[in-house]
Amino acid sequence: MDSHVEADLPPALACLKGADTLLRCPICFDFLSISMMTKCSHNFCSLCIRKFLSYKLQCPVCNTGATEDDLRNNRILDDLVLSFRAARQQLSKVTFDSPPISPKT
Amino acid sequence: MDSHVEADLPPALACLKGADTLLRCPICFDFLSISMMTKCSHNFCSLCIRKFLSYKLQCPVCNTGATEDDLRNNRILDDLVLSFRAARQQLSKVTFDSPPISPKT
Ligand SMILES: [Zn+2]
Ligand SMILES: [Zn+2]
Ligand SMILES: [Zn+2]
Ligand SMILES: [Zn+2]
Fold first, then answer.
1. Which of A74, B25, B64, B75 places its Cα 20 to 30 Å from the Cα of B33?
2. Residue A44 to chain B, least CA–CA distance (Å)
3. B57-84: pLDDT as tens digits
4. Is residue B5 situated within a structural domain?
């Protein structure tokens, strides 16, 4: 939940913007934290969607009816968030700090 | 389903290996194609898991009981596969073809 301290993507990593957006929660806009999927296949942080459903029994994205019982852990997204953030940090170093890598000849 | 023609990750992109692995189907080892999630939160290509379940009613990863009716589309993974493959191709160009990018001073 500390993504706000991360710098914007450097221009060389603009191509990661799509994955960055997909891995964020549509409620809090932070990276998904304990991802839960609704029946309608939308994903939210566990806390965010539970809070929302306690107020209104529908998906905040598509308005399909939804209950807490329907929620299913989408654990692969938690793993992808970790992997993505580590890769992004690593790539920021490569594209900015390293000497150019010559293609194999 | 054409990932086999893709080159291995260049060394500068080794940090993408984790995401690459997560986005592959545990049955066919190709990138997920029409991702379906079981109740136990494991993901497979739609065709791969339906074929498997017609033979045995359990998850191929953790052996929990599973049926076709329990499957839920995990569409965000299809979007992530597309986004990841595009980014990887783009980054291969950046890390191999471009002049070095100087850090801002
Ligand atoms: Zn959230
Ligand atoms: Zn929805
Ligand atoms: Zn498959
Ligand atoms: Zn399983």
1. B64
2. 12
3. 999 999 999 999 999 999 999 999 999 9
4. no
